[in-house]
Amino acid sequence: MLLQHYIENVALFFDMVDTRDHFGVHIVQMAKQNSTLMNAILALSARQLSRTTDFDPYIADAYYQRCFDTLIPALNDNVTIKEEPLLAATVILRLLEEMNISIIGSDPQGHLFGTQAIIRAAEQSYAATSGPDRRQAIYWAAFRQELWISLMTQRAFKLHIFPADRSLEPANDSIWATRTIAHLGDVSNFVFGEGRNSIARYNQLMDENRSWTQCRPDSFDPYYFRQDRDGSGRNFPDIRFHQKTHVMGTQYNLLAHMLLIVHDPTIPQLGPAHKASRAVVDRTVQDNVRTLCGVAQSNSKWFPCKFVACFAIALVGDRFTLREDQEQLRDLWYACERSHGFPPTATIAQLEESWGWHNS
């Protein structure tokens, strides 16, 4: 049951832009020959079930410990550390840990250190960028995990960014979607790094963001779009896409745009001009968040898009001042956690504090 649940309900956490579904297909086949990887899969599946149903949480703990018993010795083996099952198991355990903790305000590196060590050891094997083969799929999963930690802790990347395809050359939709992940990584490094005040770099990243939107294939256009019914602009729009790559590519690119808008180094820092500029930024950011939430609600089949919306809420939700807006954001977050066991509730509780909901 646990393996079936992983295949049907959990693997998409990792295969969100992978049209070949490596974690749902190839990694499972690999796990049949590797107990460390199989125990990691079963531990994650059990943890997700325990967070969304009344499934016994101690079962996840048992599989987690079994995996750990063989994973830790392998990290010290110069040969084994370069093997795909070890990195895949580390990435899977990393998600399990993310389900158990609140990310905001902490630095929950956990198995990320192991992931970094493995990727450094096998860097040459992962350097090819021709497509999402098995090694590429594992690497991108690790990359996205570090990206979320970077965003939530507001720190620059620690994981090596290999020479990913950032071009605008013709390619399949999976590669176009993957380019937005690399772009979001670049944006995260900029806004949280030492060069955050470089206007030239900011303009370059903003140009790249616009260029992706202008040059991406028409297949990324939604097949259905409807604004909110009352025209207030506060309700989430209905935006439906054909494939998961279209959903996730759009979400990542829009999240990168939101971060760039918030961290514009040309905005005055003091005086009346600062207040006026901040108001313009807040309106744009709110529109971006509503779009992210609308895409998440309209394409629930590809549930990782909900996580992108939740991370946007965590980052800039404090810029929503109307109670009606705040309640919509809160409801989307809670619905996501109830259905998928992620992200943790503690984060939205902190946001409620910033909204002043708990003031007496």
Automatic annotation (TrEMBL):
It comes from the Eukaryota. Keywords: Nucleus. One of its GO terms (cellular component) is nucleus. Coiled coil: none annotated. InterPro entries: Fun_TF. GO terms for biological process: positive regulation of transcription by RNA polymerase II. GO terms for molecular function: DNA-binding transcription factor activity; transcription cis-regulatory region binding. It is found in: Nucleus. Pfam families: Fungal_trans_2. CDD domains: fungal_TF_MHR (cd12148). PANTHER family: N-ACETYLTRANSFERASE DOMAIN-CONTAINING PROTEIN, TRANSCRIPTIONAL ACTIVATOR PROTEIN UGA3. This is Transcription factor domain-containing protein. It comes from Alternaria tenuissima. The lineage of its organism: Eukaryota, Fungi, Dikarya, Ascomycota, Pezizomycotina.
